[in-house]
Amino acid sequence: MIESVSIEQSRAVLLVRKPYISKGLVIYMNSVIFGQGYVASILNVGLQRIKDGEIGLEGIPLGNSISKTMEDIKIVGAFDLDKKKIGKNLGEVTKDYWDGNIKFDDDYIIEEGYRDNRERGNIDLEGELERLTDIYKRKDAEIFVNTITTESFEPFAEEKEFLRRIKENDFKRISPVQFYFYSVMEYDRPSVFINCIPTMIANDPAMVKMAEEREKVIFGDDGATGATPLTTDILEHLKERRRKIMSICQFNIGGNNDFLSLTEPERNISKERTKAGVVKDILGYEVPTYIKPTGYLEPLGDNKFVSMLIPYVSFNEAIDEITVNMRVNDSPALAGNIVDLIRLGEICLERGEYGAIYPINAFYMKMPGPIEKAAIAKIKAFELLEEWLFEGDNISGGERKET
Ligand SMILES: NC(=O)c1ccc[n+]([C@@H]2O[C@H](COP(=O)([O-])OP(=O)(O)OC[C@H]3O[C@@H](n4cnc5c(N)ncnc54)[C@H](O)[C@@H]3O)[C@@H](O)[C@H]2O)c1
After folding, report:
1. Residue-wise over 81-118: b if at least 16 C-beta within 10 A, else e?
2. Domain boundary among 294, 328, 362
3. 101, 210, 375, 396: least buried by Cβ within 10 Å?
4. Cβ atoms of residues 311 and 319 within 8 Å
């Protein structure tokens, strides 16, 4: 019989965390979410439906090709600020995002998160730190997934400066994501911080240094879904054919809360910052671009509309152009990637690889950290990811295969 144990117990038993299942012990990937919104809720629903044998593995890039299985991912808790969610069970909250009947194996209660006090209010950071880390311990958590609303932020660059501001209780300088990250840094066990939003964590040298020193893994920043991966691959294609791109214009209109929040200019700037840098990284030259969330149209819901126009110069100065129109269900696109990221996080912990893990970030993130590394096309990044996986023994059968 397979018996489950807490992560701490299992670490004591398996001093080196290989093999993953040893002597009948299963190590669950206990994960906690910051921001129980659309993406997180679809992640919960999809994972449960996979476990119940209702759906396949479409939209999960690595599928069954790695040793970590979906069944061993356990989402054990979440934090949010919405009064309609705090204190409610997951099952109740997901009703807003999913019509089907679903019974969760872990029907946790949503906890109150860390409130943004930069505009007004007051908060004791030390007290908040204790409150959060107590919950992490109680949940036996080791993987943290950040899917809160896109926020404004300023990176720190210097670890000393970040720690000084925390010590001085300078909550006006620290964004919620930066504080969540700090709380994970202070949490007394190796763990993983998956940053799916534009706040610079994997791209802030202060944060990366802290993670390396404290045995933490960072995946970030800003999940690459929807039009971004396709755009990077089109750019790579045109570059390889030595076609000179004249401009890129990309519209994105959606009707979910994420798009609604991005109508606030400060939040949209955070998004723009992650999208535009990618183009120069891939092409090696500057191109005039308009790439940003363009608007909110409620009836579109989660199924956003994307339109792209890329004119370019070909042989003998011929001008060609590519146009793409697509509809993309936004939240499942990111949720499927998070299923991989949780499992890859566990592999990093097993291998003792800490800091910002570029071969993983390059494929899954819009702005892959660490900052000194460039963004590359996703088709190239996937090869890098496979190479990284092959370094260990975590890929089943030595090749990508579906079961
Ligand atoms: N494909 C995608 O959907 C995609 C891709 C890349 C990035 N993202 C980012 O992922 C995030 C989540 O997207 P979503 O569609 O689920 O948005 P959402 O608005 O449905 O969910 C965000 C949740 O975070 C909560 N929240 C806000 N501040 C918080 C805080 N300080 N602590 C805890 N909870 C907090 C909100 O109450 C809400 O429940 C957004 O920032 C979005 O930009 C999404």
Report:
1. bbeebbebebeebbeebbeeebebeeebebbbbbebbb
2. 328
3. 101
4. yes
Of 41, 128, 149, 256, the one to substitute when testing ligand 1's pocket (max ligand atoms within 8 A of C-beta) is 149
Place of tokens 């080791």: 142
CA distance 359 to 307: 29
225-280 pLDDT per residue, tens = 988 899 999 999 999 999 999 999 999 999 999 899 888 776 666 666 555 678 99
Joined together, the tokens standing for residue 220 give 């970030």
In this structure, the residues whose C-beta lies within 6 A of any atom of ligand 1 are 34-40, 79-82, 113-114, 116, 147-150, 176, 196-197, 222-223, 225-226, 256-258, 330-331, 333-334
Please report whether residue 132 resides in a domain.
Answer: yes
Query: What are the pLDDT digits (tens) for 77-119?
Result: 999 999 999 999 999 999 999 998 899 999 999 999 999 999 9
One domain, residues 160 and 219:
yes
Report the CATH number at residue 383.
Answer: 3.40.50.720
Ligand 1 centroid from CA 244, angstroms: 36
Q: Are 245 and 321 in contact (CB under 8 A)?
A: no
CB 112 within 8 A of CB 79: yes
Q: Which protein residue has the closest C-alpha to ligand 1 atom 12? A: 147
Q: To the nearest whole number, what is the mean pLDDT of the chain?
A: 90
Q: Kindly tell me the number of DSSP H helices and DSSP E strands found in the chain.
A: 13, 15
